[in-house]
Design brief:
The structure holds two protein chains of two kinds. Chain A has 20 helices and 15 strands. Chain A is an alpha+beta fold. Chain A folds into two domains: 214 residues, D-Maltodextrin-Binding Protein, domain 2; 180 residues, 3-Layer(aba) Sandwich (D-Maltodextrin-Binding Protein, domain 2). Chain B is mostly helical. Chain B folds into two domains: 59 residues, no CATH class; 254 residues, MetI-like (MetI-like fold, Orthogonal Bundle), CATH 1.10.3720.10. Helices cover 72% and strands 0% of the residues of chain B. The longest helix of chain B has 28 residues. Classes of the chains: A alpha+beta, B mainly alpha. The interface between A and B is large, with 67 and 68 residues. Chain A: Keywords: Signal.
């Protein structure tokens, strides 16, 4: 044995983690078997049993966090739910930078939580593996699920016919838009830019003419970051749209095309970005920023002039934080600048994230979860999940409502912001919010509405994209970023496009187009 | 390691008289000793050997929802895919390059440090220096890398702000791939060399002071003392650690590399470990990433055997 020691150490070092998951995989395999056996025995069984709430259940929920307080079981809302549903909620929210990783590790270990949020790629990857509970047989027993989640069609989206494997997580389609420092514009005597050239001039003035008046050249025009798996940019969608790039996939002559193949548009965009980078207009750290860094830099440092803003956050965090750095700071909405050919588009979400229930857990738990989800979407539940518990998180003062400290400390609105909520523009508006603020937020959404820039392949599936898409897109991005940073000549984009197509892009395009044609019938 | 050596020593002392006086009695006499070995033996069997069974998924198209039994067998397909991957050459080159840097720049650093500290005669000074240079070992890579970002970022980093205010150009330390390798080794040395020096200092503590005295009497200078007394005392420790290090030549500290990777330096920073992470963990190709792991271990095994032979050929004691 001694002779083999160093060998075994060397061999096992690399394998320890993967092999370590082995035992639990085995268990997972068994539970798959038993799970499917149950399903065939009683197809409509899950959740149809009347749950009398008599048994206390521990329920694990996992979702994406965007910062803020974490869930506490001492919070008023946790205790309220405990009393109402007899549950001990283990509500965990993880940073979006690590979420995909966490979920895949749980998958390898066969230990999914009881209910969790999945993003598009993972949803499609696991959809037909029997891991998500099919809600179709029981959906009618929980009327709020159909009523407040965009109707049957929205529930059916991304699912095979007759199956509903998850509930859509609502996102406002045109949720974010550019905000710009009005006080800087005024100081430099500039107007709100309307075209991409004016946008550049303003951003450059912000970088070079010392808009904050501290005598130092420490400001810059705009920032950017990459999405968590480094396959695309984040926070500069209106610029991409102005140059005619599509949002991942667009329709041209009845066929889907990927933004990876728009050579001319890519070159225009890269030329613009390269100039911005060289002249100090663009944040020089954009390639190493974490997803949310640009927004954090905008609101906490006060050195960025233009930023991608979520109107709800705008009034609740950006304005108060920015005031701390610079009392004169004022941010106004900047409509998407017009590109050279007059194109405009704003950052646009597709509702592709799903809240799913684990198919392997007790029927009792599944029923309890559905009861709770149904309640969250009811009128009473909607108020509760957005505002917390009356008396602890907020109170009534005359005919007005007042927020109490516990609301922020406990993050009493996490269920609504992170897990499940109605299809409703006012997802983050609270009882106590000033009506003018509400009207302002509405106005931001309304202003961006005409500039929708939708992903035409949202919800479509391509097996090749699921398997190799990330690596392929990352490579493409590496070249594009290097071109922007001036490490590679602009002509290298041709090669990047060709490589993308050759190494799987053509196949992905074909698969998406087949799926697209099928969905058009 | 030490457990294995003891076992051998024990086995020798126990078996030499046995050879003459016959099997059973001696075997029974050895029982307490075998019992002492048992926990260590079980540890390796349960936590090191049994999990190796999981390697079968390298030959399957493993699906966690089907398990070992249910997943289809694909033979050597995963290995074909690895060796025909256009990135394979780049991954191998990067991995070996970074390992080489580790081996030739980072590995000698603690030795140098230990020799230097050994020459310091004021013990309060030596002890406080030692304490301070241990410290970074206890910081996680996340912290070390974030400190680096705060210092070296192009837009807001302290060093670049300083350069800028002095009228120099900003340097893209983090996003220019030319700096990546230097940064990687520098971080390793900063974080770990103090800690790794401990074992060499321990070896030096065992050197008989009379050797130095004799050298002084023979007229040896400070340099000569280091060359003829200190370094020979460290020789066997250095060789053993070097062999062990060779076995891990393809393990580069996954967390560290991943944290300092970005899309711009990927051409020099992508190594097998991070490749496994992106393919295996993020895209869920468990079989394929296991294949890469098997390949890595095989290389490590070959290197260890070669290094051990080499050490023996030069008259040193190997690890086995």
């Amino acid at each position: 044995m001694k002779r083999w020691l160093p060998v075994s150490i060397a061999a096992v070092l690399a394998m320890g983690t993967i092999a370590g998951c082995g035992d639990s995989n085995d268990n997972a395999a068994h539970s798959v078997d038993s799970g499917s056996a149950d399903n065939t025995a009683a197809p409509s069984a899950p959740a149809s049993a009347q749950d009398d709430l008599s048994k206390k259940l521990d329920i694990d929920i996992l979702t994406i966090s965007y910062g803020g307080a974490s869930w506490s079981n001492d919070s008023a809302i946790a205790q309220f739910l405990d009393k109402k549903f007899n549950v001990h909620l283990n509500f965990q929210a993880i940073s979006q930078d690590n979420y995909e990783e966490k979920l895949n590790v749980l998958a390898a270990a066969g230990k999914f939580p009881d209910a969790f949020l999945v993003q598009k790629a993972d949803f499609l990857k696991w959809r037909d593996k029997g891991v998500f509970l099919d809600l179709a047989p029981v959906i009618d027993q929980y009327p709020n699920l159909t009523e407040y989640l965009g109707g049957k069609e929205s529930l059916q989206f991304m699912n095979p016919p007759g199956k509903i494997y998850g509930l859509p997580y609502y996102q406002i389609e045109t949720q974010t838009s550019f905000g710009i420092r009005k006080d800087w514009l005024d100081k430099l005597g500039l107007q709100l830019p309307t075209t991409i050239d004016e946008f550049y001039d303003v951003a450059k003035a912000f970088a070079t003419q010392d808009p904050d008046g501290d005598g130092k050249a420490d400001t810059y025009g705009f920032s950017a970051s990459l999405v968590q798996n480094k396959t695309d940019f984040k926070h500069i969608d209106p610029i991409k749209a102005a140059f005619g790039l599509v949002n991942n996939w667009g329709v041209k002559d009845g066929r889907l095309i990927s933004w990876h193949t728009q050579t001319q548009e890519l070159k225009d965009f890269a030329t613009f970005m390269n100039k911005a980078y060289k002249e100090g207009v663009l944040d020089k750290d954009f390639a190493i920023n974490k997803v949310k860094d640009p927004q954090d830099k905008y609101e906490s440092a006060g050195k960025v002039g233009i930023d991608d803003v979520v109107p709800n956050n705008f009034y609740q965090s950006i304005v108060p934080n920015l005031k701390k750095v610079d009392p004169n700071a004022e941010t106004v909405q900047l409509l998407p600048p017009k590109g050279p050919t007059g194109l405009q588009g704003t950052s646009t979400n597709s509702i592709t994230q799903k809240v799913v229930i684990n198919a392997k857990i007790d029927k009792e738990k599944q029923a309890r979860l559905l009861d709770m989800f149904n309640y969250f979407l009811s009128d009473e539940g909607d108020i509760l999940t957005k505002n917390g518990v009356e008396g602890t998180d907020y109170k009534k003062d005359g005919d007005k409502y007042v927020k109490l400290d516990a609301f922020d400390q406990d993050g009493a609105n996490q269920i609504s912001t992170l897990l499940l909520r109605r299809f409703d523009l006012h997802t983050q508006i609270h009882l106590w919010d000033d009506p003018t603020t509400v009207a302002n937020v509405d106005q931001w959404f309304k202003n961006s509405e005409p500039f929708k820039w939708a992903d035409a392949a949202a919800g479509l599936e391509s097996p090749t994209a699921t398997k190799q898409g990330t690596t392929l897109d990352q490579k493409f991005m590496a070249t594009l970023i290097k071109v922007i940073m001036g490490d590679q000549p602009i002509g290298d984009i041709d090669q990047a496009v060709a490589d993308w197509k050759k190494n799987g892009g053509d196949q992905i395009t074909k698969e998406y187009n087949d799926a697209y044609q099928a969905s058009q019938k | 390691m030490s457990m294995g050596e003891k076992e051998e020593a024990v086995a020798q002392t126990a078996s030499s008289p046995v050879g003459r006086s016959g099997g059973a009695a001696a075997w029974f006499r050895g029982i307490p000793i075998y019992l002492m070995i048992l926990p260590g033996f079980l540890f390796f069997v349960i936590f090191k050997y049994i999990p190796m069974g999981g390697l079968v998924i390298a030959f399957q198209e493993y699906d966690p929802f089907l398990g070992f039994q249910g997943s289809p067998w694909v033979g050597l397909d995963n290995f074909h895919r690895l060796f025909s991957d256009p990135d394979f050459g780049m991954l191998l080159r990067n991995t070996l390059f970074l390992s080489g840097l580790n081996l030739f720049l980072f590995f000698p650093a603690p030795i140098l440090l230990a020799v230097l500290l050994n020459e310091v005669s004021r013990s309060w000074f030596r002890k406080s220096v030692q304490t301070i240079i241990y410290m970074p070992h206890f910081l996680s890579w996340v912290i070390v890398v974030n400190i680096t970002v705060v210092l070296f970022a192009t837009q807001d980093g302290g060093i670049n702000n300083l350069l800028d205010s002095l009228g120099y150009h900003r340097i893209e330390f983090l996003t220019d791939s030319h700096y990546f390798r230097a940064l990687y080794v520098f971080q390793n040395i900063w974080k770990e060399s103090g800690w790794s020096a401990i074992i060499f200092l321990a070896a030096l503590a065992g050197v008989n002071p009379m050797l130095y005295e004799a050298a002084v009497i023979d007229g040896a200078s400070r340099w000569r003392q280091v060359w003829h007394v200190t370094l020979p005392a460290l020789k066997s420790t250095i060789v053993i650690l070097f062999i062990l290090r060779l076995g891990q030549v393809l393990d580069l500290g996954f967390e560290h590399v991943l944290l300092i990777q970005n899309p711009v330096n990927l051409n020099v920073a992508d190594v097998f470990d991070t490749y496994v992470y992106r393919n295996g963990v993020l895209q869920g190709n468990f079989s394929y990433s296991t294949t890469v792991g098997v390949f890595k271990s095989a290389i490590g095994l070959v290197l260890i055997i070669l290094a051990n032979r080499l050490a023996k050929a030069f008259g040193q004691e190997g690890v086995y």
